[in-house]
UniProtKB/TrEMBL annotation:
It holds the Pfam family LiaF-like_C. The chain crosses the membrane at residues 12-27, 33-50, 57-89. The keyword RNA-binding does not apply. The keyword Membrane applies. Residues 107-218 form the Cell wall-active antibiotics response LiaF-like C-terminal domain. The gene is liaF. This is Cell wall-active antibiotics response protein LiaF. It comes from the Bacteria. Keywords: Membrane, Transmembrane, Transmembrane helix. InterPro entries: LiaF-like_C (IPR024425), LiaF_C (IPR047793).
Amino acid sequence: MEKEESAARRKRNTAFLFIGAGIFLILERQVGFFSVIAFASIVFGIYRIWSQADKKGYLLVIIGVFFIFGDRIFLLIAVIFISLGYFYLKSQQLHRHERYEQRQRVIDSIRLGSEPWVLRDSSIWFVIGELNMDLSTAILEQKETTLVLQGLIGNVNLIIPEDVGASVSASVMIGQASVYNQKETGVWNKVNWTSPNYETSDQQVKLVLSYLVGDIQVRVF
């Protein structure tokens, strides 16, 4: 039995090898060897970040990006500056109070919710990162709290308790955005959702999320 399963696995792996080799040859003829390697590095890196929470995935993504841009690295830097500038403008527009927390990182990983934590007006930006927040354990210090979450490549998972009024605006150029029972996938995705109890709730959270490439998931429990 084990021999049969082993043989089946070998055949399946061989099949995948041939399929992968064929796809590689087609792409290599169309876009070039280094572009294929770069694309594969980015895809595999994002997969490792999102499915395995592996920090080595970030390195693979960075390597892939540098392969793609090559001598056009200034274009990448320009995109980063534009994204960061937009982040500052959006933060100033949305935060009613002058005092709010700001956080900018090239690579970042934020996990909040395993124990009680304080939620304040905040703006968070990163080039590549992941963000996991469980607001059911959050302590809200004011009636309305605003969170601005932006970046280039992001994996975002948020949990909002039902008794908190929520207003969510999520946009992803490439990827998917899922908010409560609404979901958009593909290119140029945008989801706007407001909970029925937003205006009457004692505590309100306004979320503004924007990424070039990302997977956004906002759940309500």
